[in-house]
Write a structure and sequence with these properties.
The chain is built from one helix and eleven strands. With 158 residues, the chain is of the alpha+beta class. The strands form two sheets. Strands 1, 2, 3, 4, 6 and 9 form a six-stranded mixed sheet that branches. It binds dinuclear copper ion. Dinuclear copper ion binds next to loops.
């Protein structure tokens, strides 16, 4: 098949447009579908303080569940509530956290606990910390001027 010069230009333009279109839709799909795997439940981030379990932040012993304790954390610029979490060594703990404003991180240094906290989403992670110690909890998502000072502490005690 013989194509005229201008037809080739139009064909190239068409293919080029298609590639750009696919790239844009692909990028948008990625962004829309990129909520962290640890966050499956939604919450009204403006009413976090009124909604259980976030109306009672802290470490709570629970019965009849697959874990022994729940560590409930509310993040906001630029601190965590509560400032210290204390759990017994070897206990199975479910960390349940959310944000009241912007995206924050929740990384417990020296452990495999690392969650992204997004406003409107509840992040959960179940784990056992089997070494006594004090673990620094840091915000690893840039959240504003106080980001570098945003931290709390996980105490694992006998
Ligand atoms: Cu919170 Cu960075």
């Amino acid at each position: 098949m013989h194509l005229h010069k201008y037809e080739k230009y139009w064909l190239a333009f068409g293919v080029g447009s298609l590639i750009v279109f696919l790239l844009i839709t692909g990028i948008m799909a990625f962004h829309n579908g990129s909520h962290p795997p640890s966050a499956k439940n939604t919450i009204n981030y403006e009413k976090v303080d009124e909604i259980a379990p976030f109306n009672n932040p802290g470490v709570h012993k629970v019965e009849g569940k697959d874990w022994d304790y729940e560590a409930v954390v509310v993040a906001s610029a630029f601190y965590y509530d509560p400032p210290i979490l204390e759990v017994p060594v070897g206990a199975k703990v479910k960390f349940i956290a959310t944000s009241k404003d912007v995206v924050h991180g929740f990384e417990v240094a020296g452990t495999n606990i690392n969650m992204m906290l997004e406003p409107g989403y509840i992040s959960e992670y179940v784990t056992t910390v089997d070494k006594v110690g004090e673990y620094l909890i840091v915000c690893n998502e840039y959240c504003g001027v106080g980001h570098a000072q945003m931290h709390s502490m996980l105490k694992v005690v006998e």
